[in-house]
Amino acid sequence: MKKTLHLKYFAILRDHAGKGSEDIESDSQTASDLYNELRQLYQFPETGAMKVAVNDEFKGWDYELDDGDLVVFIPPVAGG
Amino acid sequence: VFSLSDTVLDTGYLRNALRDQGCGAFIAFEGWVRDHNDGQQVLRLEYEAYSALAEKEGLAIIREAVDRFPVRQASCVHRIGELGLGDLAVWVGVSAPHRDEAFLACRYIIDEVKHRVPIWKKEYYLNGDSGWANCEACGQA
Prior knowledge:
The complex is a heterodimer of chains A (about 80) and B (about 140).
Chain A: E1 3-8, H1 11-17, E2 21-26, H2 31-42, E3 51-54, E4 57-59, E5 70-74
Parallel strand pairs in A: 1-5
Antiparallel strand pairs in A: 1-2, 3-4, 3-5
Chain B: E1 2-5, H1 11-16, E2 25-32, E3 36-37, E4 40-49, H2 51-68, E5 73-79, E6 81-84, E7 88-96, H3 99-116, E8 119-125, E9 130-132
Parallel strand pairs in B: 1-5
Antiparallel strand pairs in B: 2-7, 3-4, 4-6, 4-8, 5-7, 8-9
Helix pairs in contact in B: 2-3
């Protein structure tokens, strides 16, 4: 069953996607599946040093997505 | 306290907020925008943050520092938006009864902030290129 997911893109991922956010309908089960789905669309880099947050909390790549989740993929950070 | 700011930081104000009569030491760290990185000449920077998670993670770091080292107060403010050379990008302040723990806590906070808080830095170079710092390998799809 398709889920509605809210996505926000930052830094290099925003550059690749050409937008800062979007809502999508997806069959992806896990955060990792979703990232692979988006990679097809936007030529995102490999997961490598990426992290993922769901509903403003860090989660593992095997996190099972729920309808309505806010998902943010986090490229290597560079504060300071 | 951890916060993000899109305007110039008032370090006097930040410092005064950590005043405490039980403290004999105050340590501050300031991160400034440098004119070079990895052999490239930098002209300016842009910081971007995932605010909701950055504030949560930043606050967790401050709490860890206060728990781990016996300091009284600690705070960190990070700039977002466009910055020029020499601008203050991040400020960390710690007050403690004694200096040793203040130095350690200050070091802990800036190191953890750089590693964990979702803030990104886009550098604009003299040669016209630009790039996201720490993301050299990210360009390859």
